[in-house]
Amino acid sequence: MTPATAIQPTIQLERPPDLQVNGMSKHFGSLVALDTVSLHLKPGTFHALLGENGAGKSTLVKCIMGFYAPTTGDILIDGNPVKIDNPRAAQKFGIGMVYQHFTSVPAMTVAENLVLSRYDNKNLINWKQELEDLRAFMATSPFQVPLDATIAQLAAGQKQKLEILKQLYLHSRILILDEPTSVLTPTEADEVLGLLRQQVTDGKLSVLMISHKFREVMAFTDEITVLRKGKFAGSGLVKDLTVPAMAEMMMGEKKEPTPVNKTAHLNPVPVLDVKDIYANKDNGVEAVSGISFMVNSGEIVGIAGISGNGQRELVEVLAGQREPTTGEVWVNGEHYAATREEMYRHKVFALPEEPLRNACVPHMSVAENMALRTFDRPPQAKGFMLLLNAIRSTAVGLIQQFSVKTPSPETPVGNLSGGNVQRAVLARELSADHIKLLIAANPCFGLDFNAVDFIHTEIVEARNRGVAVLLVSEDLDELLKLSDRIFVISEGKLVYESAIATADFGAIGRSMAGH
Description:
Elements: E1 19-28, E2 31-41, E3 46-50, H1 57-65, E4 72-77, E5 80-82, H2 87-92, E6 95-98, H3 110-116, H4 127-140, H5 156-169, E7 174-178, H6 186-201, E8 206-210, H7 214-220, E9 223-228, E10 231-237, H8 243-251, E11 270-280, E12 286-296, E13 300-304, H9 311-318, E14 326-331, E15 334-335, H10 340-346, E16 348-351, H11 355-358, H12 366-370, E17 381-382, E18 385-386, H13 388-401, H14 418-430, E19 437-441, H15 449-464, E20 468-473, H16 476-482, E21 485-490, E22 493-499, H17 505-512
Parallel strand pairs: 3-8, 3-9, 6-7, 7-8, 13-20, 13-21, 16-19, 19-20
Antiparallel strand pairs: 1-2, 1-4, 4-5, 9-10, 11-12, 11-14, 14-15, 17-18, 21-22
Helix pairs in contact: 14-15
């Protein structure tokens, strides 16, 4: 590869540079994370990088940014090979990255964070001059964030705008975005991507965005590159593609999402009745503030909200993992404290977020984890004796029924992919007889197209059998697709309620943002 000094990097360019990645591979020992992948980000275009979890997307962009040294392959800027061995070198070529998680210092102001983002080593800062320069910069920027506000005072949407502003302040002409809307409301996401889209259209920026959201890809991007299992799987112009076509590139097979067909229930009965629940976070600060709602048989009630607004603590109260400070939960007309005996008697089951942490024992086998609900009851137990053949036989049937990909029932569940761990939990929770209540918290977070479609289908089928379903999710598209009624939680309170047929998308977004 020609050394970086072969061309003189420039910071301010008349147009965004042309970026090419040719034949890039990255090996971690015997693991091939990236296998001869090529990508072309043309000047002034908005390019989406797609692929299921583990497809190699993050590895590719980390090689571009200099976090990883590629095993093979070249990076070309305007047709010239360059060496990028750290993010500072990437910045010299006008390449900046906006990460999935915020990188600003909470106690510092917006102005201080912008100055901190520079890579110089000045011992003294002329704040009068810096503020004049920052005001001039902000006057021409696509995003407006108050310079004197501390980061802790900003909403999530403002924090994400600041992360992008940092790169514009550093004169980045190529922005790499890693799931930039994962912490935003739909309205905020459309605003941020729309403003970036305008910068791209005006020829001021090129954008390479990692995303799992087909709606955003179709609305804002020009081209896509798809990776599958570390290899190039396809590319094309968005205007020439459909969502099923993109999903086929990602998954290796053509698959339409299973349509949601709901059965009407004429005489629903209350199953879950939450009455004025309050609960604290681990640090003692109040997280849930007087929440009340009801879920009936044969309906899916969705709770939307941005992460950190009390939904995790609410689910933990309902699952018996957190004590409420006050309030009551009733199930099937009886007071409910979420003990194991009450869960069994009332047929309450759960699909938690982060199943390896909340619903499985990673070092135990798939069969043992599938038996956690039933190992001490016939036919899997006789008195105090576990019947291992019966436990294994049950697991074999569930593995087949729910298409869990595992080498064997004896494989530790922690060795499975995220989607297959969730399928194993789903098999355990939905295979019980006469299930009455299902509590699902972000059941599809981070899962691929096939796994999401499978889990959605199983949840709706449970609802059609008369199960009461509480679905807590940060994915508004998922809630709008599956729910019969929807609530919004903000700062620990329910601030919006509607039947799904009359739900106002804009009002939901504003409520999620706290307005």
